[in-house]
């Protein structure tokens, strides 16, 4: 017992025990710190959706963990069978290439195959193909790999590549999706270049595993977004294709909507100085713009394409022309029958015959005037005045006779269509057109949009609303209309006014379109502040130079 007491009281033993305890504590604290850091990095990697930022984060954290002076991150291109440089970082040379904030990389990709055989001579391709970690203490003394590239880099920059650690990035299916190449580990106390400590390998492997999963998730999200956008744009293209006269309308409205939104973000004074759309909000607005006319998928083509008042499945003005030709023949036949009856009775004279001929010519001339008037009104390019409508009713009320049966010059339906005061649509047809906004909302609300896209139906369906509540489908007023819907409304109106491919109107001059927009502001149909920004920023001119003909651009 005394021996144990004496032994336990030995100063040398106490000092040794203290040292061991300190080292164990330091090791445990270091391991806990590493685990905490890995957890923090894992959370950060999982949260980052921008692939370029994610790649930067992966390389920077790997370099930080291993005290590496330089590093390269490659991604696997399965189609091209190669490794593509994504990021190159060198602290000593202050080099940052690729990624979100670096200069463009112009280096050729590393092939995974050479002449149909696996490329095992390059250390990065070997790592990708074998899925093995490669730890090289001294690059210039290593055997089995071709280090021509690093040596040429050293000769060109004056750098000296020494130690190297190369690790594959494997996804959940154990497929290599990238390679992490670290260069020149440094002693954190002296700054001396040393080999990569084997104890870092498992740490970096854990980091690489987290990074690969995060990268795969980010890629999956990006690909799903790409698929969603392609699907949305294909639907929009199909809707535009229903009418050769509105082809490109949706894409132009989308382009103009985003141009206006970006101008709002750039504003540093005035109403929009404190307004900034986030990337997610811009994405939401872009999708809404692409889908704003999705309801037209059910709108009949003859209504969408209606360029003449008498048009349904075909332009019925051809029937009117044929009918008026028939009326001419009836009148000529009546005059000939009168002449024949006079000759047979011996009561007719040349003087009476001449008078009948003159009466016929006057009737035919009047008939031609009436036909021309009908055809002109059918175009719908001019607003019908009260006297025009009255004249149309008088023409429609006239009759001609065939085989004892009397017929009107115009049917009731033809008269009603020809008396449309403005444009080519009847109130019923206009309601059919307007119903597309409500149908757009119904269609879009059935789609399970994620939270950040939840307002797409409201923005898309609100582009025909007006600030004074006279719009459709819900008659919303200014305080009920979000800025995004107001932006889309302005874009939709301006595109419709200036479109150069509409069959029912000549291409409108830019100055006239701006006058109409200004008048709509006065009547509180569109947003005055947005209009002022649209004009003062020169955005109207920028859009016009892209989309309008030179003849339309008459203002600077």
What would you say this structure looks like, in words?
This protein is α+β, with helices and mostly antiparallel strands. The protein folds into 4 domains: 1-33; 48-221, 2-Layer Sandwich (Beta-Lactamase); 242-305 and 428-547, Orthogonal Bundle (Hypothetical protein af1432), CATH 1.10.3210; 317-424. It has 19 helices and 12 strands. It has helices spanning 2-8, 11-47, 51-66, 123-130, 148-157, 198-241, 249-266, 279-290, 301-304, 317-345, 350-379, 386-397, 412-418, 427-445, 456-461, 483-498, 510-522, 528-536, 539-547; strands at 68-77, 82-90, 95-98, 110-111, 113-114, 117-118, 134-136, 164-170, 176-186, 193-194, 399-402, 405-408. Strands 1, 2, 3, 4, 7, 8, 9 and 10 form an 8-stranded antiparallel β-sheet that branches. A two-stranded antiparallel ribbon has the order 5-6. Strands 11-12 form a two-stranded antiparallel ribbon. Helix 2 (11-47) packs parallel to helix 6, helix 7 (249-266) packs across helix 16 and helix 16 (483-498) runs antiparallel to helix 17 (510-522). The longest helix has 44 residues, at 198-241. The protein is elongated and about 155 Å long. The termini are far apart.
Distance between the termini: 105 Å
Q: Work out the helicity level.
A: 55-70%
Give the overall shape.
elongated
The CATH topology of the largest domain turns out to be: Hypothetical protein af1432
Summary keywords:
Hypothetical protein af1432, 4 domains, single chain, eight-stranded antiparallel sheet, two-stranded antiparallel sheet, 556 residues, alpha+beta, Beta-Lactamase
């Amino acid at each position: 017992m005394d021996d144990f007491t004496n032994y336990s009281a030995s100063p040398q033993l106490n000092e040794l025990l203290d040292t061991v305890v300190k080292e164990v504590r330091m090791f445990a604290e270091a391991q806990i710190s590493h685990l905490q850091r890995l957890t923090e990095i894992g959370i950060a990697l999982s949260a980052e959706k921008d692939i370029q930022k994610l790649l930067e984060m992966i390389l920077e954290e790997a370099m930080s963990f291993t005290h590496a002076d330089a590093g390269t991150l490659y991604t696997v291109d399965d189609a091209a069978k190669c490794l593509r440089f994504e990021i190159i970082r060198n602290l000593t040379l202050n080099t940052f290439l690729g990624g979100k904030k670096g200069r463009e990389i112009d280096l050729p990709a590393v092939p995974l195959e050479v002449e149909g055989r696996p490329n095992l001579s390059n250390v990065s391709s070997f790592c990708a193909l074998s899925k093995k970690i490669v730890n090289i203490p001294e690059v210039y003394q290593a055997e089995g790999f071709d280090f021509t590239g690093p040596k040429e880099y050293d000769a060109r920059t004056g750098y000296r590549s020494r130690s190297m650690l190369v690790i594959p990035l494997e996804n959940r299916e154990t497929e290599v999706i990238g390679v992490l190449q670290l260069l020149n580990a440094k002693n954190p106390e002296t700054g001396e270049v040393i080999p990569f400590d084997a104890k870092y390998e498992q740490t970096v492997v854990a980091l690489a595993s987290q990074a690969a999963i995060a990268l795969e998730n980010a890629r999956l999200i990006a690909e799903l977004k790409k698929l969603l956008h392609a699907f949305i744009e294909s639907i929009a293209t199909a809707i535009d294709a229903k009418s050769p006269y509105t082809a490109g309308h949706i894409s132009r409205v989308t382009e103009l909507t985003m141009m206006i939104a970006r101008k709002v973000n750039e504003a540093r004074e005035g109403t929009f100085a404190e307004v900034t759309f986030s990337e997610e909000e811009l994405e939401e607005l872009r999708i809404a713009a692409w889908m704003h006319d999705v309801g037209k998928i059910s709108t009949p083509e003859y209504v969408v394409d209606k360029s003449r008042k008498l048009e349904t499945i075909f332009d019925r003005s051809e029937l009117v022309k044929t009918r008026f030709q028939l009326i001419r023949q009836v009148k000529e036949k009546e005059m000939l029958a009168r002449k024949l009856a006079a000759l047979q009775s011996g009561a007719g004279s040349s003087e009476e015959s001449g008078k009948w001929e003159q009466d016929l010519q006057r009737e035919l001339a009047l008939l031609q005037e009436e036909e021309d008037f009908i055809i002109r009104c059918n175009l719908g390019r001019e607003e019908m005045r009260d006297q025009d409508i009255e004249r149309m009713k008088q023409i429609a009320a006239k009759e001609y006779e065939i085989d004892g049966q009397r017929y009107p010059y115009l049917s009731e339906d033809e008269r009603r269509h020809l008396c449309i005061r403005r444009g080519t649509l009847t109130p019923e047809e206009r309601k059919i057109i307007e119903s597309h906004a409500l149908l757009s909302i119904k269609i879009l609300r059935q789609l399970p949009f994620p939270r950040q896209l939840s307002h797409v139906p409201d923005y898309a369906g609100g582009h025909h609303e007006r600030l004074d509540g006279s719009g459709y489908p819900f008659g919303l007023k200014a305080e009920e209309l979000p800025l995004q819907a107001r932006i889309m409304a302005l874009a939709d109106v301006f595109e419709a006014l200036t479109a150069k491919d509409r069959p029912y109107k000549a291409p409108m001059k830019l100055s006239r379109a701006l006058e109409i927009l200004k008048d709509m502001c006065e009547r509180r149909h569109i947003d005055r502040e947005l209009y002022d920004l649209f004009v003062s920023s020169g955005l109207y001119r920028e859009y016009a130079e892209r989309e309008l003909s030179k003849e339309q651009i008459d203002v600077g």
